[in-house]
Amino acid sequence: MVKISANYIFTGITPPIKNGVITLEDDGTIIHVSENDAENMDNELIFYEGVICPGFINTHCHLELSYLYQKIPQHTSLPNFIKEVVQFRNHASVNERLISIKNAEEQMIKNGIVAVGDISNGDSTFNLKSKNNLYYHTFLEVFEIDSFKAKETVTNAKKLQQNYFSPTQISITPHAPYSVSKELLSLIVEETPSILSIHNQETESENTLFKEKKGDLYEQLLAFNSAIENWNPTNKSSSQSYLPYLNKAEHLLLVHNTYTSKKDIEFANANFKHLFWCFCPNANLYIENNLPDFSLFENEICTIGTDSLASNHALSILDELKTIALNSKTISLEKMIAWATINGAKFLNIEKQFGSLEKGKKPGIN
Fold first, then answer.
1. How far is CA 63 from CA 103, 216, 283, 295, 365, in A?
2. Of 63, 132, 151, 219, which alpha carbon lies 20 to 30 A from 298's?
3. Quick check: 82 and 26 in contact, CB under 8 A?
4. Per-residue confidence at 120, pLDDT binned at 50, 70, 90?
5. Please, what are the domains in the chain?
6. pLDDT in tens, 47-68
7. Selection from 258, 275, 264 nearest residue 197 by Cα
8. 171 vs 119: CA distance, rounded Å
């Protein structure tokens, strides 16, 4: 048994406890969380200057892109970033990719991350994930603009899905609203209604594409696939255009939200009961050199992601929180810690073990 304390304990679900005490089993299971009273004042108590909080939940990562660390320049804008990723995809050996994946996982563990929502386009991360060094939910990401290829795309994803070690910890999910047809969106939500993730409004040209069928993103997509020529603009923002096709999703994570407006948030809330908003601020700065208006999301259920080492300097939830703190005067530390812990656990349906400091849980301690 171990007793630890700090200036403040942030449980993830209650106001911070000043000089609180956490009593733990040797395996990390929480026995008790309490105020620091006379009963807890003994020589066995280990006190830390600062704060203690639960292990971090990284709800958006691309572990398989770790080999692209420092390969892609900063501030390229999303359309050019996508182009760079495609160009570099075949520039690393299988062994180099596997080593970079292992190193990235070790970095996350060192940085206090205990669970990850990870995007995969292939199976390069599957073997490492099966070792359960961290809890992983894998989002098997698909993209195809051509509506006639929607069924084929889902069929291929289901074949890849069968290679995963845990059928309950993998979901077929759409890449982004601009890279999937409405037919593919509908098929995906039929296959995986429980938990979905999608990149949302990461660049202003995404909204321009949906409203006017033009802009940098449209031109980049046209270079990849001529099927975009048959795509019709909606005269609405991106999120207001595609979200109705996903309204059967039980848990939906919208990732980035850099160019999401108040009206977009209101529209989304009117269509979903269990909606989560994920921020990856350091990746937003790396790619677009811009950030979401965090003040718009004060009353929303938000989570934190690191994105990939292709678009970030490190896989650190704490670094993401520091960036939010430096760029927002309205989001409290207590709220940010909830974003980084219990909210992510709820999205991934793992709140019975992770996300908060409560009796019987083994959530990790930071």
1. 10, 27, 14, 29, 23
2. 63
3. no
4. very high
5. 2-52 (2.30.40.10), 56-347 (3.20.20.140)
6. 999 999 999 999 999 999 999 9
7. 275
8. 10
